């Protein structure tokens, strides 16, 4: 017998929810996997290099799998293995992602396409893979890791911003489609956290353009310098994400970190102010009312 609470299936025989997390080698993914396992959740722990996450198997009921979200065969195989092992997937966390530092004009198309392939199409592949079983169960929870950069853009990361804006739009449409089916969707929008995002997982422009030194160049240097010293704590973030998933009324968007919250509120104020200033022009674009 299966009952459902807040969009997550609960098996009367085994009430431990099944979490499936991508990108568990470092950062949010690894910390989420640790905390999920420590809380007794059955957890599918995935990474491109499984040797980097095999130690997590000792923490609880874990299924450690190789997964490159750009590889459709690996995506399908991992989801099938998870369902075969645990019977279902209750919570999918789309965490795998990379960054890229370059002004828009400086950006290398190959690097940009690779980032879109991971950050956008990787998320899409995972969603497509888990939705059939979630729809069948009429339950499930999809957590998509976005960024404060998915709400407001910054110099030097324009194309990274574009990937996260895409995830935001995809997620907003998705929750309107699947919530009537018992499936919840949440965006997580962190600011600066002490992960490897600005170090190991973010390449940068090889031939900078001098004209962007004071904008994209300065921002790139600032972010690189702060790497390892960001105010955000990945452990606290993972705890917040798990608690939000378990909440009676989970948010659609969860900014994490003071800079994320303040940046989001500031963006709302900026939009409201500018829209109001141009309200007459905006409304005047319709055919006159008869």
Automatic annotation (TrEMBL):
Domain of life of the source: Bacteria
One Pfam family linked to the record: adh_short
SUPFAM superfamilies membership: NAD(P)-binding Rossmann-fold domains
InterPro entries, per database record: KR_dom, NAD(P)-bd_dom_sf, SDR_fam, SDR_oxidoreductase
Alphabetical keyword list: Oxidoreductase
Domain Ketoreductase: 17-191
The keyword Oxidoreductase is assigned to this record: yes
Transmembrane intervals: none
Matching NCBIfam families: PRK06180.1, PRK08263.1
Family stated for the protein in its record: Belongs to the short-chain dehydrogenases/reductases (SDR) family.
Record PANTHER family: SHORT CHAIN DEHYDROGENASE, SHORT-CHAIN DEHYDROGENASE_REDUCTASE FAMILY PROTEIN
Protein name: Oxidoreductase
Originating organism: Actimicrobium antarcticum
